[in-house]
Amino acid sequence: MSNEAVLHANIGEAHDVHSNHQTHHHETFITKYVFSQDHKMISKQFLITGMVWAIIGGLFSVLFRLQLGFPDTSFPWLEDILGKWWAEGGHITPQGYYALVTIHGTVLVFFVLTAGLSGTFANFLIPLQVGARDMASPFMNMLSYWFFFIAGIIMLASIFVETGPFSGGWTAYPPLSALGDTSPGSKIGMDLWLISLALFVVSSLLGGLNYIATILNMRTKGMSMTRMPLTVWAMLFTAILGVLSFPVLFSGFILLIFDRNFGTSFYLSDIFIASTNTALPNEGGSAILYQHLFWFLGHPEVYIIMLPAMGMVSEIISVNTRKPIFGYIAMVGSLFAIATLSFLVWAHHMFVTGLNPFLGSIFALLTLLIAIPSSIKVFNWLTTLWRGSIRFSPGMLFALGFVSMFISGGLTGIWMGNATIDIHIHDTYFIIAHFHLVMGVASIFGMFAGVYHWFPKMYGRYMNTTAAYIHFWITLIGAYLIFWPMHYTGLAGMPRRYYDYSIWESFKQFAELNKSISIVVIITFLTQFLFIINFFHSIWRGRKVTSTNPWKSNTLEWTTPINPGHGNWPGEIPEVYRGPYDYGKDGIDFIPQTTPIGAEESGHH
Amino acid sequence: MSTVATAQTKWWGGGKSPFNVEYGKVMMWYFLMSDTFTFAGFLLAYGSVRFSANSWPDANEVYNSFPFAPEGTHAPLIFVSIMTFILILSSVTMVLAVQAGHHNNKKAVVRNLILTILGGIAFLSCQAWEWTHLYHEGAWWGRNPFLNVDGTPGAVNFTNFFFTITGFHGFHVFTGVLINIIMLIMTLNNTFEKRGHYLMIEKAGLYWHFVDLVWVFVFTCFYLI
After folding, report:
1. Residue of chain A nearest B46, judged by CA positions
2. Chain A contacts of B156, Cβ < 8 Å?
3. Count of domains for chain B
4. What is the reported pTM?
5. CA-based, 20 to 30 A from A327: which of A156, A498, A551, B178?
6. Of A2, A209, A226, which to mutate for an interface test with B (greatest number of B Cβ within 10 Å)?
7. What integer pLDDT is reported at residue A26 of this predicted model?
């Protein structure tokens, strides 16, 4: 079935996407900006909601860094703003501290780097880059956003309940998460946390199904799978990972909900609660079972976060070096390998749970195998840069920053992938340093790269380049200054999640280091507002884009009008004749995908 | 929808669906894969807890009654076999409904959809009876009156998993019945006749068969093993 027919059956006659006069159907504020079914608007909704969550999540990290960096200092204004529960006497309270780290992790992993990243760019780029008028089901796409929105509202509400939000760490291991008596955060806050994330799974499923169906079914004529930009390949694998791994988390959550509310013992056995001085009757369950179910999602999840960034970075690097991406098929193959392996390594998060060492060695082997496709990608990015005519646009800088972070954080992955080393560094700051660099900062860099690069397509204006350069350099240096020292503290045995290190003889020596990290966190966090201001200022006041193809790029999104309407192309959808990376071919700077193969052209596919 | 293909057709070349199906069916297949993982998560959790338990109740002793049976009847797995048979029959009528849709035979679609819905309702009713019966015997979430095979007090996760997983499956049957009722209403309103095809019935059918297939695994894991 053709793209047109699919869309026709779907959007219906009223929208009349074939028309050259796209303005003739009336759109109210509600249908255009709120309950929009246009993939471009939905992507902006995801982006801006994600930005709000990023500010909240980032602010939380600033607050708990205040405690870690200045454990002896009182900030009376904190109590004024946050109240006694969070900051009695100007000190972040222990319960407040654990609530902050938990919500920081949850929000950034799920709301910012999953929904904010792939929700934004899968929505924006898939239809534009494969040559489709919209997603396969614009209605489901809209639902996907609104489920995400409601999940966010419930998570936000949990921050304001009397007993505080969930505070047992973003992984929510039982029995702490299963028993309300164990900590204030495990009461109603945990129920809200679970409901919020269950809705988030629904949102992710609705979105993922749409992305897959759109990529498979709605490519324009000539857009074979191997002519798709790497962004689209990355989004495809991301969506498949999400569709296959989130449901397992969902079943894990359902069992947890039953344990919390209906007296079951799926994860509980032989428990005595000191705070209430009671022995619980629960018997036969296994807390480790939850970890298996959780990490079966949890590990693919880090690739759900990584892959979209990888795809966008590949595209941005190729465009801005004016060179074809090195090893297109190897790039696709390594995405596939990473996606497949990601399902087979979850127990490397569980080396110290009493896992059979033999099993541990198998998981270590499978984990280390991921180094192969990851290095293929890194070397391909570097070889693409090699002798390229590099344009250091803000998008390109962040793409390079991504590669740098991915290498720095990825190399330590080889350390902890080995079960023997992991036993020493498990739950230390070494782990914090590793995953923040490789997954957190790298993906945020990918997201920044994407925003700077595609902003002209999103809003028809440019972002301010000077502000972007300042934003880039401070963020890059800041990220390294924050996370690099954590490798050392981690190797020295400093455990994560402790409330106050100054009372530990072994970690007193890091007091100044912790202080300096906290100061850099504050500076880096404030610098992000430069981006936020730049973003919103440029939406209305940015320099206008005057050419449809400002980056001289090959892909289809740049064949649409500067401000494409619903349906993307005013006339027919262009046909595709070549792959997306014909840069510098036969001495020609760039050849868009819509250009037919010339008679004299050298080898093509 | 063009279904004519020649040997030269480039299925993956863009401009057409590589599987020659519309997007809704692609989505349904991927959704079913996703749901497979949900059930797999549940059943693997069940398996791991069960095999780490010292002993477990015997299904033949637990599920050995049926409605209106006199006290002391020992009819192991008879009732659940009837339930299973009903569900499989409802899959047969679903196939017939899909088949009738292919021939644009509205009357046969309506007839077979009604039979499928009745089959689904019958299955849910049976499940409701079974749950009620077990409840009156003292079984519920957090309570297990049935002794383990070795005579020790019953492992409470036996009933925990039973009610959670069969309940989750029952919820799927329930939504399947709802979907089929919507399909029936749409058929009666000539929605599909106007569209010229009954593709929606096919997608509902995929879901129904999936729910049926899942039951085969749930049935095996809880009643047979």
Report:
1. A266
2. 264-265, 282-284
3. 1
4. 0.94
5. A551
6. A209
7. 72
